[in-house]
Amino acid sequence: MGKKIVVALGGNAILTDDPSAKGQIEALRYTSKRLIELIKQGHQLIISHGNGPQVGNLALQQVAADSKENPALPLDTLVAMTQGSIGYWLQKALNEALAEAGINKHVASVVTQVVVDESDPAFANPTKPVGPFYSKEDANKLTAETGDIYVEDAGRGYRKVVPSPKPITIVEYPVIKKLIESDVITISAGGGGIPVKEAEHGYIGLEAVIDKDFASAKLAELVEADYLFILTGVDNVYVNYNKPDQEKLEEVTANQLKEWINQDQFAPGSMLPKVEAAISLVENRPESKVVITSLGNIEAIFGDGSVTVITAS
Questions:
Q1: pLDDT mean over 15-27
Q2: Has 289 been annotated as catalytic?
Q3: CA 152, 154, 159, 160: dihedral to nearest 10 degrees?
């Protein structure tokens, strides 16, 4: 019987060495052909994706063109714009792959708002760098003018940092559920979703970035998915990574992962948020499982190959 699967695409599924629209579309064509294999097996896909390089490039374009007549747009709007562009490219690529495979299914992208809490500790300690690099002098000047925080980034200059709060809920999840029930392949929660807070008559966008894997875990919880696939650059999660006693993880529980987190086994900004997102899903919805592997290894998930599978217990 087919499974309901949220597939969280990493940046390597969208952006290769060619950052042009043409290059990214080609990457998504390859990605779509890999995903079609799951659809052939009868599984229902709910796709999410990253947007870090794309929203970064768009922020650079906004700053370069900023003027009184054409002011730069805020970060929440840039997230919405990249959700739209990547969703458009991915829809086209999936439709092509479906047609080639002789599968009659519809694909729909949903511009997705994700609710966060302004009391989240992340707002008191912004850490996510966005936008261009500045000299220390220019960064200090911008801080005085705008109140934004700039920090040194890898010795290359100073960049603005914004909060990365945890998702509370997804505004459009009831719509996404209806699309799933109608057997529509959905693309949603792109780039972690547009960060918003609740207001009296709706929602207000925020200058923040939500981690894509945490948003995908929340999406999987809300749509009651059987699986969350977090696709990354390696086939498995490892402990003692790149050391002589490196160990490949295959079947693991949330509690085992917590022990390894306490041992600093997973790199912050790399594997750690993926592992933490996996834990959040299986603890909130124990019926779900999380698979962490690479796009190229996707056929191993329900085959004889090796992937990392995370369960509640």
A1: 85
A2: no
A3: -80
